[in-house]
Amino acid sequence: MDQSRGEKQLNAQTVNRGQVKRILILSCSLLAGVVVLTGNAAAQDSSGAKPAKEISYTKDVVPIFEKFCATCHNADEDHPSQLFMDSYETLMKGGKHGKAIQPGNSKESLLLQKMNPTPPFGKKMPPSKKLIPTTEQIETLRQWIDQGAKRN
Fold this sequence. Notes:
- This protein is mainly α.
- The chain has helices spanning 5-47, 57-68, 88-93, 110-113, 135-146.
């Protein structure tokens, strides 16, 4: 059976539309990939930020804990949370609500969750309205946890 000229043109247009559609989808996918890769590189380069320095437990973290936490969270006090922060071992052991530190995962670490204005339970820590850690001090704790909460 011979196709009429009109049917041949219609079939050719259908094939061409299908090919054009595939080419457009492929092009959009490639373009999206380039945008994502370029955006990530630009964000890293334009920030001018150096890679985060390694946070030292002894030099950077302990002074923050001593200033804001250890007054109440120490083995000599009968703290209701049973979280004692006067040594690395007792800190990493956690308290009655579980582990305060999830090495490598600051978002899941109760220590930082309790420092948020709306903690998952109980009061915000530290409770004092006069003695509040700075944004930089909280960021130091976050980086230390994300870096693995090493005893260094």
